[in-house]
């Protein structure tokens, strides 16, 4: 276990003797050499302190390196006993601090890298040599980042930067490592404190500053801002604002690297890796465990770079985390980890290069960098939490990585003034570029709503990105001929069902669409729970058997995790299809769905998001599934910008919409009726239906219109069957429907509604969502705002009441509307 050593005379030292599982088993022994001040030994993770009356300590093993932060230290070794004497200085940490600097000398780091990473002696020697050029570049990058962030702070105070902004002062050794060891071709996923990460990864500092200014010359044309820096040219893929959301996206990016190799994509560099940045507070999120599991399971080339500044926003991380040793989280999964002192840039370079090389050549790893953040969480942070201001003042004085480097032997012979000037000149250039950049055109927001504008794409003609001929050649190369023959027969059998009198089921129709698209385009992927068995309704059936586990992945039971992985894949040239065993399970992935919808616009149109999510859900009368399986998930996601949301109650529409959505370059959600998945019907297996149009299944006769007995009825999912039953019952009374199914739920196809209301002038909405905030509420508002003059009566909404759906049928009838309710409403509206 790591120990922090503090003497009562004020001297502060930190012993990072436990930055591996090997060193954590070592024991410290105490010997008494006369009177001495007490030494307080406290666990790095905040465990209970122990007090020993000694200044002489002995431990087993070689390398008696003292862990000293402030003051002068002298170390001697005699008879295998290490004695360290520390001289106090005015720079010693205040006694009230709960977190001090650690020391992870390269001599001991090598032991960790050998035992945990299997690093060879030859490689250790190579990583331990830091050239003069590397030192100059590291120092210049640290100065560039410091000055850039200082200017950001000034610009924020001056009103040029708005919204939320998070500065990186004190953590400059990390961008120094990135500039040293991360390549342009590597895929990088950062979080909201991303300015310096982007610059260190090659993104132009002027474009970063212009983005913060909200200018058209910014990395994202002013659509992203401080927390959302993206640059497709340098593979800098965020800037993600929700804590820890970037973790599964980066895992998806790492999968895309493996997939590129599997497909034999041309022009891809060898040994590319994904890098994901996360704070030690964010690493307590369950996403971290899920992603370590995924990385280990598929041996993905991903580095988890943990930036440990001791704060989860402002809260002391140790107040909420039982164990802050994030580098040890991978033990359960066989993922090695190492801890390094982030105030010593040379140690960061050495240890970081070793960890990165491990990822490039062997598999996933964790690098935890112990740092101090000199600023609050954001400029608006009052920093009232205990000891925060004392810690910040002390850290700026004693733990500044730039000052520490300047005072070290490594700085000897370097022209620090020239390097500093060059960094300042670059920041000056960035400010001038940002000031000169014009604001984006107001119309840009609407232009970036969808990668494929509504109605402007013929999906039947869209070829795979690699070209159809190349795609076909790739499929023949990666799929066994016998399996390919079996797959083609399966597809032929499913297509044959479409022409039978009974037709094909909804589940099989969607399965047919997925199999055809995965066969045609090797960048199409599948993710689902219970995928090998076809999930609940056969939607992903036979995908893994045909295409293997890499392209058709069985997933852990967390939709947010695999929706997140799909998002990362979609950003990197793939077309993932996510099947939700039940659409309501998608609630677990609301954050990921939100980001999928936002990404195209937030990146200024740099990253498309060809991701399809398919799930059976809705609320059927008498389904007896209880509240959690009867939620209006479709209503929950209607408010997410950038999503195209469709529904289908029949095999024909399910197939045609699935085919189009898979080929669309934006994120889409296709919802199916959970209680009708085995319903069979006709299907045209050669069609691509539009994603922006509703489907009118019936049209009221002119006679019904003339008799004032025509009604426009709009519904979706199970409401289609209920409406068809109501139409039969109403036939004798002469009441007829313009019957519209919302095969496109978002964007709302209000033109089809308009054309119908111009005939019927009456509207009933049979809605599988709640009265408050439901789909029907949105439709009613659109009609009232735009088509009010076409109405002869108020819009009538037959929707779920604002109550959880009960299990017992007697209560459920009061909550969920059905055919009998529609019949009664239609008769009332027509005065029958």
In short:
The protein has 28 helices and 31 strands.
Would you kindly provide a written description of the structure presented here, covering whatever features stand out?
38% of the residues lie in helices and 17% in strands. It contains 28 helices and 31 strands. It has a seven-stranded mixed sheet with strand order 20-19-21-22-24-23-29, with helices on both faces. Helix 3 packs across helix 4, helix 17 runs parallel beside helix 22 and helix 24 crosses helix 28. The longest helix has 26 residues.
The count of helical stretches stands at 28
Spatial shape: elongated
Radius of gyration: 31 Å
Give the low-pLDDT segments: 1-90
Biggest beta-sheet profile: 7 strands, mixed
Strand count: 31
Strand content: 15-25%
Strand order of the largest sheet: 20-19-21-22-24-23-29
Distance between the termini: 81 Å
Q: Compute the average pLDDT.
A: 88
Class by alpha and beta content: alpha/beta
Helix residue percentage: 25-40%
Notable characteristics:
832 residues, alpha/beta, seven-stranded mixed sheet, 17% strand
Which helices and strands occur, and which strands form pairs?
Elements: E1 3-7, E2 12-15, E3 28-31, E4 39-43, E5 50-52, E6 56-59, E7 72-78, E8 81-87, H1 106-117, H2 121-127, H3 132-157, H4 173-181, E9 187-189, H5 195-200, H6 205-212, E10 230-231, E11 236-237, H7 246-263, E12 274-279, H8 286-297, E13 302-308, E14 311-312, E15 315-316, H9 317-320, E16 337-341, H10 345-361, E17 365-370, H11 388-398, H12 401-406, H13 416-436, H14 444-447, H15 468-478, H16 481-497, E18 504-505, H17 506-520, E19 524-528, H18 543-551, E20 552-554, H19 559-570, E21 575-580, H20 590-602, E22 612-617, H21 633-637, E23 644-647, H22 651-663, E24 668-673, E25 680-681, E26 695-698, H23 702-706, E27 710-715, H24 718-730, E28 736-741, E29 744-746, H25 750-760, E30 763-770, H26 775-786, E31 796-800, H27 809-815, H28 819-830
Parallel strand pairs: 9-12, 12-13, 13-17, 16-17, 19-20, 19-21, 21-22, 22-24, 23-24, 27-28, 27-30, 30-31
Antiparallel strand pairs: 1-2, 1-4, 3-6, 4-5, 7-8, 10-11, 14-15, 18-25, 23-29, 26-28
Helix pairs in contact: 1-10, 3-4, 3-13, 4-10, 6-13, 7-8, 7-19, 16-17, 17-22, 19-20, 24-28
């Amino acid at each position: 276990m790591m120990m922090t050593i503090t003497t009562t005379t004020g001297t502060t030292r930190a012993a990072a003797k436990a930055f591996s599982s090997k060193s954590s088993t070592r024991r410290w022994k105490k010997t008494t050499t006369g009177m001495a001040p007490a030494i307080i030994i406290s666990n790095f993770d905040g465990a209970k302190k122990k007090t020993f009356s000694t200044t002489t300590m002995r431990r087993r093993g070689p390398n008696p390196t003292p862990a000293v932060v402030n003051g002068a230290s002298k170390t001697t070794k005699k008879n295998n006993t290490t004695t360290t004497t520390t001289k106090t200085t005015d720079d010693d940490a205040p006694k009230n601090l709960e977190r001090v600097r650690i020391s992870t000398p390269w001599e001991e780091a090598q032991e960790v890298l050998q035992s945990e990473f299997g690093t060879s002696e030859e490689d250790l020697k190579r990583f331990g040599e830091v050239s003069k050029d590397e030192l100059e570049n590291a120092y210049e990058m640290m100065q560039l980042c410091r000055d850039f962030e200082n200017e950001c702070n000034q610009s924020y105070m001056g009103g040029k930067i708005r919204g939320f902004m998070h500065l990186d002062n004190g953590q400059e050794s990390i961008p120094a490592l990135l500039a040293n060891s991360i390549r342009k071709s590597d895929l990088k996923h950062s979080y909201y404190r991303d300015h310096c990460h982007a610059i260190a990864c090659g993104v132009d500092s002027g474009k970063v500053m212009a983005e913060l200014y909200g200018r058209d010359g910014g990395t994202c044309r002013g659509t992203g801002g401080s927390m959302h820096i993206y640059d497709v040219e340098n593979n800098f893929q965020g800037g993600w604002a929700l804590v820890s959301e970037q973790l599964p996206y980066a895992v998806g990016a790492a999968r895309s690297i493996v997939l590129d190799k599997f497909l034999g994509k041309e022009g891809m560099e060898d040994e590319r890796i994904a890098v994901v940045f996360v704070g030690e507070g964010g690493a307590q999120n369950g996403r971290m465990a899920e992603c370590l599991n995924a990385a280990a399971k598929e041996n993905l080339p991903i580095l988890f770079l943990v930036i440990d500044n001791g704060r989860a926003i402002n809260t002391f991380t140790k107040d909420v985390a039982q164990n802050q040793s994030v580098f040890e989280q991978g033990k359960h999964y066989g993922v090695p980890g190492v801890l390094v002192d982030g105030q010593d840039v040379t140690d960061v370079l050495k240890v970081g290069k070793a960890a990165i090389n491990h990822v490039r050549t062997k598999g996933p790893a964790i690098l935890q960098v112990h740092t101090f953040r000199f600023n609050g969480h954001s400029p608006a942070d009052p920093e009232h939490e205990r000891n925060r201001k004392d810690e910040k003042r002390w850290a700026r004085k004693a733990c500044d990585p730039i000052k520490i480097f300047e005072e070290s032997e490594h700085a000897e012979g370097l022209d620090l003034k020239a390097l500093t000037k060059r960094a300042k000149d670059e920041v000056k250039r960035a400010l001038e570029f940002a000031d000169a950049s014009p604001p984006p055109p107001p119309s840009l927001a609407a232009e970036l709503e969808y990668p494929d504008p509504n109605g402007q794409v013929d999906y039947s003609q869209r070829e795979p990105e690699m070209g159809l001929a190349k795609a076909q050649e790739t499929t023949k190369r990666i799929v066994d001929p016998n399996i390919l023959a079996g797959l083609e027969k399966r597809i032929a059998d499913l297509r044959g069902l479409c022409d039978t009198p009974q037709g094909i089921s909804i589940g099989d129709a969607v399965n047919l669409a997925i199999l055809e698209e995965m066969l045609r385009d090797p960048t199409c992927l599948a993710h689902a729970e219970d995928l090998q068995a076809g999930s609940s309704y056969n939607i992903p059936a036979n995908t893994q058997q045909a295409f293997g586990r890499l392209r058709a992945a069985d997933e852990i039971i967390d939709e947010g995790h695999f929706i997140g992985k799909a998002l990362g894949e979609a950003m990197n040239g793939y077309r993932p299809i996510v099947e939700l065993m039940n659409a309501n399970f998608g609630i677990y992935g609301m954050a990921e769905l939100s980001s999928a919808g936002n990404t195209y616009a937030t990146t200024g149109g740099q990253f498309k998001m060809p991701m399809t999510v398919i799930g059976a859900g809705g609320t059927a009368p008498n389904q007896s599934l209880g509240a959690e399986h009867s939620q209006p998930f479709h209503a929950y996601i209607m408010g997410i910008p950038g999503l195209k949301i469709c529904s289908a109650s029949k095999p024909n529409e399910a197939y045609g919409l699935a085919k189009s959505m898979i080929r669309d370059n934006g994120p889409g959600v296709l919802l199916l009726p959970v209680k009708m998945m085995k319903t069979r019907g006709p299907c045209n297996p050669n069609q691509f239906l539009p994603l922006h149009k509703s489907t009118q299944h019936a049209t009221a006769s002119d006679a019904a219109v003339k008799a004032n007995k025509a009604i426009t009825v709009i519904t979706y999912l199970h409401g289609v069957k209920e409406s068809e039953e109501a139409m039969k019952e109403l036939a004798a009374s002469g009441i007829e429907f313009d019957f519209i199914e919302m095969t496109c739920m978002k964007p709302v196809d209000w033109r089809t509604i308009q054309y119908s209301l111009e005939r019927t002038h009456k509207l009933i909405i049979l809605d599988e969502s709640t009265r408050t905030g439901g789909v029907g509420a949105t439709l009613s508002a659109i009609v009232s705002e735009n088509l009010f003059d076409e109405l002869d009566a108020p819009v009538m909404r037959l929707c779920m009441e604002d109550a959880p759906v009960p299990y017992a049928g007697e209560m459920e009838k009061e909550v969920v509307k059905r055919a009998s309710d529609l019949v009664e409403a239609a008769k009332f509206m027509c005065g029958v």
